[in-house]
């Protein structure tokens, strides 16, 4: 049974109980009290089902994470085996277990560049938060206590803790929270279509961004700046692919001014781009890398912060002076989570998931590019199995939509009526389907997206 085909009396019961007790994330809480939740009952492959049995293509892999779909027997079995063997342990006070050790080894084997040490957490937010603390600890150990500022980018997304929300360059995440904190600086979003000047080439735009970054460093003082954090491809900010040559220009500037580069691979990591890492797409060797989401295919909460040997050695010396490296959380490297992550990586390797992404990527990209002529679409962006349609109110001027006429939520809600679950990022519609999606499922997903946009456009022009 597809789309919206009837109701289930139980849905009303769960709706009322949800409204009565649950606080939802990224949600207009007042509106939710009236509209209620979209309740999911089960999943199968790239599909999810609501309580009435209506089926939807989940075009966002949940939140960029359900890379192997929504019912993965091998991961279920891996979790069950580990629960039967060792249901809980921790990594404090030199305690360890085989699952964390083997997963750390595997991550180092897969990682780009010279990353040799692994610190586990539960979520991408925590992994990035740990990276900030690690950078501060490292700079203090070097005798550089003033070197604490971290540069992020407008449009970037790094989490929702106090620190990582500050790093994120999304103003709605700051309003009402007195953020960002003062240690954060933001430079421009690298979105050529939106911010490139008339007649400016992509390469010239990248050069301008690099010059602006160095000017900011010099203005603030390089002695005050500890690190620069960036997603290789901005995800939640709208699948923003950097302009040609961007990282080739940025990285030497950071090195010249003794500024660490943190690669936020929470979304890009583990095949989303058609490579193991977003860094691999651009030839980046980061000083610190954070990963999560697809690490355990969304089945268990686990993330990691990887660092170079040089950073670890400096941090290690500082911990000897202080007496301990006091950072960590109760469930970091949880044996069940680590076991599921190891099995996830085994599936990626045994089933050549990344090869499949590479095979599907041209179909996905060509299908999205067919939307370029749609009256609502200003720009199409795609790489691997992540993509976006930038929606505009006027194609010639590239004008978006005012907050009062925001189109993203309208598209999201309309898509459900067409059997498609997706999300918006401002005026963009973003897609990030499970990495196992087939060519036929890509076509079905995009057919439903076209029906959605056609409906929204017709209603907008009435």
From TrEMBL:
BP term (GO), one: gamma-aminobutyric acid metabolic process
Top-rank lineage group of the source organism: Bacteria
Cofactor annotation: pyridoxal 5'-phosphate
Keywords noted in UniProt: Aminotransferase, Pyridoxal phosphate, Pyruvate, Transferase
Alphabetized GO MF terms: adenosylmethionine-8-amino-7-oxononanoate transaminase activity; pyridoxal phosphate binding
Statement: the UniProt record of this protein carries the keyword Transferase: yes
Pfam families in the cross-refs: Aminotran_3 (PF00202)
Database matches in InterPro entries: Aminotrans_3 (IPR005814), Aminotrans_3_PPA_site (IPR049704), PyrdxlP-dep_Trfase (IPR015424), PyrdxlP-dep_Trfase_major (IPR015421), PyrdxlP-dep_Trfase_small (IPR015422)
PANTHER family listed in its UniProt record: ADENOSYLMETHIONINE-8-AMINO-7-OXONONANOATE AMINOTRANSFERASE
NCBIfam families: PRK06105.1
Family affiliation: Belongs to the class-III pyridoxal-phosphate-dependent aminotransferase family.
Protein name: 4-aminobutyrate---pyruvate transaminase
